Amino acid sequence: MNKLKFLSLTAAALMLTACAKEPVILEQDEYTEISLSWWGNDNRIEYTLEAIKQFEELHPDIRVKCSYTEWSGYQTRNKIYMASHTESDVMLINFAWLDQFSSDGSGYYDISTLGEYIDLSQFSESELEFGMRNGKLNAIPIALNTMTVYFNKSVYDSFGLEIPRTWEDLFNAARVMDDEHYPMSMSAKSALFYTIAYTEQTTGKRMMTEDGKLNFDKSDLAIMLDFYKKLVNENVIPQVEYFERNNLKEGSYGGVVAWLSDASSYMGPAQEAGYEAVIGEYTSNAEDNMVWYTKPATMYAISSNTEHPKEAAILLDYLLNSPQISELQGIEKGIPLSRSSRSYLEEHDMLKGLQYEAFCRMNEHLDSMILINSFMESSDLLEAFQEAWNSVLYDKMSTEEKAAELYDTLTELLGK
């Protein structure tokens, strides 16, 4: 019998003896309730809920209240919750949010003070450094991420084409493929990083300085705008507003640029339809000028306002290092950085597939990759570029005029 229930029954028996009244049986299940929030598709929701069920069985003194939604809704709600200090005790966060909500390190809990409950030794110092702000460990990265080039080899084979290795190879492929096929496709965010990479490789300049200032001038921005216009006008990619993920499954897109962690969601349906998917090179016209970016895929943080840091830390350790989460999550959030989690996946032959191949490709080039500046992931920057792309695409303004206007917009955004 539960100890608390036994004590309650004993108390009730004493009351009956002393007062000669009907017994009052009080059942008190003492536990601490904490909250957890995350974003993701149905699969992520299902396995996380199952993981929490198993966590509560392991820790009957802790109950977890779950909150989840898709990405855009989660991002919008997070801003409200952080502003009102009503965020979850443990939360999945985007890397860019560290600078947005905790530039001085006070926006999230200092996890380094909770080492008694979280096994931080499963991560290297350089990996934990991603989550450091002002000397405080604000978040722990789950995995690393980079924009990855995926190709449908079956489509390229059908046109007698080799898999592209350079920018020019893509344009050559577009000249061979018919009007119903594109050599490449991408969302707006992917197009932003793709055109940044092209411009950096072309000019030898980084878009941002190390201290977070705009390093591109108006002529560099004009190169970005012209390159996007050329990609669309020469039928290399569909306009980003018309990008349809389902077309990857149908084989009308010969490739896609997407995050490493999204390999399965983008290319999985095409593989299930019988197409062969392969990892492409990080596009470049010169091997010694390969510029690409990396960042933590997703991170876990603890609220600076939590009333239960111990319990939050116990949950966080479980979400990062336990065999239960390793089994359920697999590599859905990327190849885990946690040594214990990765060891579990290796022992159970779970490190395989397209995403693992993309991870291995990233590791080959990791030393030469650059950490993404959080401004490069801001929605304001993306909206500014989308508006600029369409202006030059539909000849509303010349490239030079729009680049000058865009430069002023970006400078103003950074000033804020």
Molecular structure report:
This protein folds into three domains: 1-30, no CATH class; 33-143 and 297-337, D-Maltodextrin-Binding Protein, domain 2 (3-Layer(aba) Sandwich), CATH 3.40.190; 146-294 and 368-415, D-Maltodextrin-Binding Protein, domain 2 (3-Layer(aba) Sandwich), CATH 3.40.190.10. It is globular. The longest helix has 17 residues, at 3-19. Helix 9 (218-233) packs across helix 16, helix 9 (218-233) crosses helix 17 and helix 13 (323-329) crosses helix 14 (339-347). A hairpin with a 2-residue loop joins strand 4 and strand 5. It is of the alpha/beta class and 416 residues long. The strands form three sheets. It has a five-stranded mixed β-sheet with strand order 2-1-3-11-6. Strands 7, 8, 9, 10 and 12 form a five-stranded mixed β-sheet that branches. The chain has a two-stranded antiparallel ribbon with strand order 4-5. It is 47% helix and 13% strand. It has helices spanning 3-19, 42-58, 71-84, 97-101, 125-129, 153-158, 167-176, 188-203, 218-233, 246-250, 263-272, 309-321, 323-329, 339-347, 354-365, 379-393, 399-415, and strands spanning 32-39, 62-69, 90-93, 132-133, 136-137, 139-141, 144-152, 255-259, 277-279, 293-296, 299-302, 370-371.
